[in-house]
Automatic annotation (TrEMBL):
Residues 48-143 form the Methyltransferase type domain. Its EC number is 2.1.1.-. Gene3D superfamilies: Vaccinia Virus protein VP39. One of its GO terms (molecular function) is methyltransferase activity. Coiled coil: none annotated. This is Class I SAM-dependent methyltransferase.
């Protein structure tokens, strides 16, 4: 099975950063904003955006919360910093770090969003376990991503094209079940923006809060 490696990913996205907003970013921008709506933060909340990339979502967060964007790629983060400066987004900050080893204490964030990043890291369940540890009880973890189809012929195509996808920066064969292996978060609900959408928005929370919801 072909997997992602952080060392190659960082170089790959440094390159992507030069045209991301006009290509893949433009294609998925409406979905990014729809996923943000699922966070439902309260004033004063701290939100972690893992794999914030070029920061296309930053200007869409309410300015009465604190947003921390984390990313591996210096190139992607430079674009995010430009947006923070140009739009005077004082409630947003970004840091360069590897989400496989996030530099935060447990339960540091009220909510977490992982947009088009769970299939980019080398170990998706590890990322999701970190999300579980970093979010406060009752907080939401929103995952926007493409997941392998349940339809066998489509899943086969996703497997066949995976080596090419890995070369350009993501896996096409990650299933939601694999991403959530050993993760103590529960899916509250998930949806696609249209019937034939390739991406889905998954809303998770801790088991106890899910059971009392
Ligand atoms: C496809 S982009 C998604 C950017 C943005 N969230 C979006 O929805 O458009 C994936 C991002 O994840 C970042 N990334 C990949 N692996 C990472 C890791 N281990 N730690 C932190 N960021 C990572 C990449 O540098 C890239 O900016």
């Amino acid at each position: 099975m072909m997997k992602m490696r952080e060392s190659a990913t960082s170089r790959c996205y440094d390159l992507w950063s030069k045209f991301y907003d006009y290509t893949f970013g433009a294609l998925v921008h409406k979905r990014q904003i729809r996923a943000l709506e699922e966070l439902r933060p309260s004033p004063g909340d701290r939100v972690l955006d893992i794999g914030v990339g070029t920061g296309m979502t930053l200007r869409h967060y309410p300015d009465n919360i604190k947003v921390v964007g984390l990313d591996l790629s210096a190139g992607m983060l430079r674009k995010a910093v430009d947006k923070i400066r140009d739009d005077n987004l004082r409630h947003c900050q970004v840091i360069q770090a590897d989400a496989m080893f996030p530099p935060f204490a447990e339960q540091s964030f009220d909510h977490i969003i992982i947009s088009h990043t769970v299939s980019v890291v080398s170990d998706p369940p590890k990322l999701m376990r970190w999300a579980q540890r970093l979010v406060k009880p009752g907080g939401r973890v929103i995952v926007l991503n493409h997941f392998q189809s349940n339809n066998k012929p489509v899943a086969l195509v996703e497997k066949v094209v995976n080596p090419i996808c890995v070369k350009v920066g993501w896996r096409s064969d990650l299933s939601l079940e694999e991403a959530l292996e050993g993760v103590d978060l529960k899916v509250l609900y998930r949806f696609k923006m249209s019937l034939v959408d390739l991406w889905q928005i998954v809303v998770l929370t801790d088991r106890e809060s899910a059971e009392s919801a």
